[in-house]
Amino acid sequence: MPDATPASSFSMPDKPALEGLEDKWGTAWEERGTYLFDRAAATKANVFSIDTPPPTASGSLHIGHVFSYTHMDLIARYQRMRGRDIFYPMGWDDNGLPTERRVQNYYGVRCDPSLPYVDGYVPPLEGGENHSSKAADQVPVSRRNFIELCERLTAEDEQQFELLWRQLGLSVDWTQSYRTIGDDAQRAAQRAFLRNIERGEAYQADAPTLWDVTFRTAVAQAELEDKEMPAAYHRLAFHAPDGSDVHIETTRPELLAACVALVAHPDDDRYKHLFGTTVTTPVFGVEVPIVAHHLAQIDKGSGIAMICTFGDVTDVIWWRELDLPNRTIIGADGRIVADAPAAVTTEPALAAYAEIAGKTVFSAKAKMVELLKASGEMIGDAKPITHSVKFFEKGDKPLEIISTHQWYIANGARDADLRARLLQRGKDVNFVPEFMRVRYENWVGGLTGDWLISRQRFFGVPIPVWYELDADGEKGRVIVPTEADLPVDPASHTAPGFDESQRGVPGGFVGEVDIMDTWATSSLTPQIAGGWETDPELFDLVFPYSLRSQGQDIIRTWLFSTVLRAEQESGVAPWKNAGISGFIVDPDRKKMSKSKGNVVTPKGMLDDHGSDAVRYWAASSRLGTDAAFDPQNPKQIKIGRRLAIKVLNAAKFVYSFPEPAAGAGITEDLDVDLLAELNRVVTIATKAFDDFDHARALETTEHFFWVFCDDYLELVKERAYGSATPEGQASAVITLRTAVNVMLRLFAPFIPFATEEVWSWTHDTSVHTAAWPVVPEGAPDPTGLLPLVSEALISIRRAKTDAKASQKTLVTSATISGPAMLELGLEDLQGVGRIETVTFIESDTVSVSDIVLAEQPAVEA
After folding, report:
1. How far apart are CA 813 and CA 795, in angstroms?
2. The whole model's pTM is what?
3. Which of 95, 326, 363, 516 has its CA 20 to 30 A from that of 269?
4. Which residue would you say has higher pLDDT here, 210 or 786?
C-alpha cells in the first residue's frame, strides 16, 4: 500500500548517519501501516503467506533467532516489492516447560496443585534469574497462582521480544499476532484434538514412557537429545540350571530386579545353544529366559545383555516384540519404588530389594554393586566407559523409562499408509536447500512410536476431556465437549451433563489434569494465524502457506508435526516452500546454544553496530549453511555497517548534482554500459531471490555497488560536474540517479533502514512498497566497456601510486592500450586521471604506459 508522507518531511541531511534510523523509520512504518496485510485487496493467487516461527517467550532471544528470522524477512520484503499481498504474522510460543522453568527461577516458586489459590499473591523473588533453580529453594504455590505468574512473565518477555524484532526491522504485520496460550490458539488446539479422537487418531494407552524426573513429565521422541556421559561396565554372573554361569556386562546394575530376560544376536555362535533355556538373576534369584533378537550387538560387552523394564529405548523394543513381562521399578520421582516386582519372592531377595527401595538411581546403583560384590556375583572391577545417554532437550538429568497412562496421536509410526502419505507431503514441499528434505524423510522413516502429547505440567493447553466415574470411583468413559464450548479447562469447568457437586465422587466425573505438549499447539500455527474454522475467508486466502522458514534443529518437531496436522485436517502439505537456516557456530565451530553456554544475545550488537549491519551479516549466509560468529571481532557485521554508510554517502553525492532538464537522455557509451551491467545484476538478483538464494542476490548487488562507487562514479565525476558537453553531463547525472534508484531497491530487503532513508530524499513513498526493478524490454546487453575502462583506471591509479604521487596529480601525457572498444571511454579516463594528452593504441590487453607526470611545485622548507 502506498505511503503518503511528502518528501519534504525527510529532506537530505548535511551529514547522513545510521544512528537513529531504526527509531525514525520504525515509527514511520507503524504510523503509515507500511506492512499491513491489505485483506480487502488481496486475492488467493497473489497472496504470499508466511508461517512465522513463534519464538519461545521464556527469557531472551539469541543470535540464532536474528539469523534465521532475517532470512525469512528478506523473502517477505522481496515478495512485497514484487507486488504480492504479504500475510506475515507473528506468534509467541508462551506455554510449556521452558516457560515454567523460567517462572520457577524468576519468582522463586513451584507449583503445588493441592494448595488453595491466594488472591493478590506476591512471589518471594522478582527477577531472581537462576537464584532459585533448586526445588528446595522454591516456595510452593497453587496451580492458579502459578499460571498467573506464567502469564505475567511471558507478557513482559513478549513485549521485549517485539521491541527487538522491530529494531531488527522485521516487516511483520503486528496486527496479525497471536499467543499459543491465548484463547484462539487453545480453541484451535483443542478442536484439532477432538477431531483426532473422532477419527480414531488420538487414544490413551499404558505404555513405557520416556520420563524426565526433574520436571516429572512424559517426553516425546522428538524432544530427545543425546549426550556423552561417563559410565562403567559391570560384569555379572547369571546362573544356569547345570551350575554354569552366563556373564553379561551392564552399565545399570541398579535395574537387576527389573530384569526379564537375557538377549543375544541370533547369529552369535557363543549363545545359540542357550536360546530357549533359562538362567536365574544374581542376588534376586529370579528365573528369566534367554532369547534371540537382531538388535543385540555381538561386539558390545560380552555379546549377551540383560533386558530390563526399562533401561533404554532398546529395552522397550525387546519387551514389546518379544512379549516379555513388565517389572518396572523406577517411579515418577526417579527413585526405586517401595514394592518389589511380583517375581521377587524369597526372603533374601526381598531383603536385598528393601536395601535399594526409595533410593535415587545413583544411590541404588552404589548399593546394588555392594550387594553383588558381597555375593561374589560381580566379576572383577567396573570398567569405565563413555557412552551416549538420552536427555530431555530442556532437562539436566538422564531420562528414565517408566510405565504410565498417556494420550497419543497417530503419527505414522504404526500406520504404513499414514507414513507413506507424510513422505509424499514432504515431496510436495520445496525444501531449500534440497538436502534438508532427507532429514525430514529420515525422521518419518525412523519413527518408532506414536506422538505422546500429554504432559504432567501446568502452563499449557488443557487436554479437553473428562472421565465418567463408576460406582467405585474408577475412571470410565471419556467425556468430550462440543466444539462450540471451546476452549475448556476440565480442571475447573464442569463436564457436560453433570454439575460441579459431582466432581470427584463415585457416579460423577473427574477432569483431565494433563496439558498438551507445546508442539501440539505450535504444530497448528498455520491454522491459528489463518483463522481456521473461525475466519474461513482468511484461511482460504492464506492456506496452504507460501513459506515456512525455520532452523534445521526443529525439522523433527515443528516441521514434521505441522505436516502431520495439515495432513490429518486438510490432506495437503501446509506450505509450498520450506526455507531451512543453518546453525550459528562459535569461532571453534561449535553450535551456539543456551545449553552450551556460548550463546550471544543480539540487543548489544544491534545497538553497537546498527540493525542494517547485523542483517547484512545474516544475509551473507545461504540457507542451510552454518555461520561462524565471533562477538569479539564481528568482521562481517563491520563490513555490513561500512556498506550501509557508503550507501548513504554515495547517494548524497549523486543527489548533489542538479537533476537534468526534462527531455535529457543517456547518450554516452559508458553510461549505457553501466546500466546494461546493472540490468544483468537485476536479472541475477531476481533469479536468486526466486530460488530463495538471498546470499547470491546480496553478493551480486554488493559487487556491482562497489564497482559503481570505486570506478564508475569516479570516472564520470568530472563529466557530471560539467567538464564535458551539456549532453554528456546530463547523461552522467541521469545514469547516476537511475543506478542509485535501482540499487536502493535491490538493497532494500537487506539494509531496510539505510535504503528507506535515502529513498525518502527523493520520494514520498516507501522503498519497501516500491516495485522491484525489472529489465526494460529491448534493453541492450553489456558490451564489456565498463570492465575495460575500470581496468585502465586501476592502471592509472597504480602508476601514480608507484610514483608516490597523489591521485590528484596532473599527467602531461600517457599512452593507453586496449581493445578498440576502450577508446569509447577515453574522455572519462582522461578526466579522472587528469591527463592532458592521451595516445590510444589498439591492443588485446589493457595497459597504461609512458605516463609523464606534470612537474610539482617545490615545497619550501
Report:
1. 14
2. 0.84
3. 326
4. 786
